[in-house]
């Protein structure tokens, strides 16, 4: 029994769309949500303290917990309200022993209902409402149009004992409305995310919901998954003879599509620097393509005269995991992390990037300009941008889609962050920083997260406008689920990104670049201000 | 292997997508004629001819076998027509490289990569690092996925003047713009080992310059012909009429045979001049059923009028005989064409040509009088042109007089060798 927690939940600022039905439910009963909150503020220790609330609303919000063994007589006024209803659709026990409860309950967000599971309780005011238009048909008459928001999702934090079942019950009497056995989802973060994301919370509440409910659960599943994946063997196949002591390792994860490999090899076959100084590591991150790629690999290697290694980690690891796996197999002092849909337009690009990194020790990571196939800019550095609708920082690509004339940058210059679609870095530093953070679901934000880790260490992310490659962006991700799911993955990852780096991001987005946008050696640069790219020739205006 | 110090004594290999013994396309014939001229050229030490070959009922073995001294057949096919990738490339490259080692060419003059695979250029470059690689472009396949026709897909088959990711994606919605970028990038990167390009028409040359081949790496050289004695003109009809028109070539939608037949029907209806038409066509049976039906219906309506004679396909040897009763040759193609052999053959036999006023046809018939240049896809325009030309003997004589002298394969070979020398400098 945790009355304090319960009261705190009621006290919590209720979202407006939950307040509205509450106001309606309380109308004419001499109680307002404000009064309900005030009542809650008093800590609701005794039945008597909540008498007015109980009298008005028909049951004691929170007081009911005390009343389990000693029911409060329901006042007459309560009879005029419809009896609360509800159902639990999904009860999932996560690897950290927290429990996610999904269902519906009417009146929506009511303090009259609670969820209970093996020792912990949560009030529905603590839940996030979700859109359930299917409820208006059967219950719209009784509960009004807001019945459509009767769905909910909430998280019962870590239990001391594993709950066998979870119950939705009346706060006043403890009467169980519906009870469901908890289902276990272990190391399956994507499956868990699919299940949770099917609960449709209004967009403006999504970030808060993800932060408190989905993210901790999914993070636990990811951690569990990683723990298992770490024990898997890593397989390696070598095709052709790689340089004995490569200076640079190209690491290219493959997911869904692998036909780009031939286009990359064709380009590499015309690049003397790559042939003589680089090793190429393809990390297969998709069990479906492994046999096909292996069957073709020898032909491709011989046809183009390019040696490469295939690395396979038994399972899909996502962008960060695949790159980290590749880095672990690499021998070069420098790494070029590259997407499979990035195609070099001319030889020499890899040498230019690595030389630039050598010449600029103040930079930790450097990314080139990337162009869409039809001639628009895909990457000229990244900038953090506040999304007012979703209430979250997102990574923006300034100048996206514009022709290269729109970017006046020459040479190397600092950016808030740079893309992971193609970046060069020093292997030692990458290892010391713990490689990519693997806590982002599927793939998103790992690159900016990495750039922020470099910044924390005093090393800058740089953008090199003089090297250009073509990026067939997102071609390989088309098969990765429906757009609705992908968008929610992005928001989930954005929430995590923000929790880790919110303060730094806000400072950088406010114009606080470290170096004033300038690399050493008198290279001209471009500064970022308020998320917009401002071109300069002399760099003087770069210090905001 | 190294290139000889002097320009003389060169060894040259000609590679084509088919041998004219088995495949009578214009490009195969042009390649073979050029081979014969190279072979007999005083500056050439040796010339060999390699042609891709497909044997009925047999898959490609990738083997290169002799056809006759100096001529070879390469059992070869492609597996990917989107990006011209050959079947079993490793084995094919190995056998092709062994053949190149044997031939030791100073110049490899390729006339196509279709049916063989675009990877052949890298194999030539790797096997013979100093060899000059020349490619003659006979159509627009690298530019246009629609059978290299530069004609839009779908209803109406509109003409297309330039490729772009956006345009190509509209013709093939199932392929993304990125797919088309990859296709173009793949072909162009493979082309990067080629030293020089040859276009048989200025029109085709300009399309490839627009597409991305540097202006100074591609020249126009017309296909050369092996000259035969011209077939004498027939006796003029009553009143000196020159009213017999001939259609030669494939009976497919791009060649405009339907426009031709509809135009004939209009001349009969208008009855201004008695226009007669002979159709010497091939491969109708290979077309789509609706097209076959349409052509046969038009034909069957026209045959009873006595104005249409429907002949089958012809062999090169009987071309002269087929020309005997013809005053004019008509080429009503609805696509650009390049350097049509039909025009060259007509001119060799001193028959003036009426052609669509677009692309390679317009270029190759430029010396004709304005009445001989007609709007493509317009049966009415073609009918009026034929009526006018049939009624005016003087116009026929004028157009005969304007026929340019034919270019022999020897002339063409000399022009090629001059271009190779220029490219090597």
UniProtKB/TrEMBL annotation, chain B:
<dbReference type="InterPro" id="IPR028098">
    <property type="entry name" value="Glyco_trans_4-like_N"/>
</dbReference>
<dbReference type="GO" id="GO:0016757">
    <property type="term" value="F:glycosyltransferase activity"/>
</dbReference>
<dbReference type="Pfam" id="PF13692">
    <property type="entry name" value="Glyco_trans_1_4"/>
</dbReference>
<dbReference type="Pfam" id="PF13439">
    <property type="entry name" value="Glyco_transf_4"/>
</dbReference>
<feature type="domain" description="Glycosyltransferase subfamily 4-like N-terminal">
    <location>
        <begin position="25"/>
        <end position="224"/>
    </location>
</feature>
<keyword id="KW-0808">Transferase</keyword>
<protein>
    <submittedName>
        <fullName>Glycosyltransferase</fullName>
    </submittedName>
</protein>
